[in-house]
Amino acid sequence: MQSFFLLIWLTLCAAQDVRERHIANGLTLGAGVLALGYLWWAGATWLGADAVQGGWACLLALGFTLPAYAMRRLGAGDVKLMTALGLATDGMHVLGTFIGAGFASILWLLLAPKLWLHMSQGLRDRLRYLGPGTSNKQPFAPFVLVGFSLALLWIQ
Asked: In the structure, what pLDDT confidence band is assigned to residue 117 with cuts at 50, 70 and 90?
């Protein structure tokens, strides 16, 4: 049930990132504060891992995202999103999410030019920031959603 709520949260973040190329602080920092509060209160992450594992997952997420943020490949919202996810899960989920997000991103880069031609104009307008050739910095949250979904299937 907890993973269902994480999927809903990631879906909201992904939808906003695709539409606006921005994730609101209320979604990222709010979830991070809730995850940290739960971690301190329960002594475990939202998915039931030990608090130490949640701390290491948070550091792992920062280690993966801060270099990309410094190179301007990720935005601050992406860093906060992954940090909050680390506080709510564990290192295996964070690692699986990054691996899945990488595969989803590569797959999208390969398929987008072909799929884009067959999409309706309305859908293209809604997904304009995911369009092929629009930017070097694609929205990351949709790929995180796919990666987390794959990690859930893989780990459980």
From this structure: confident
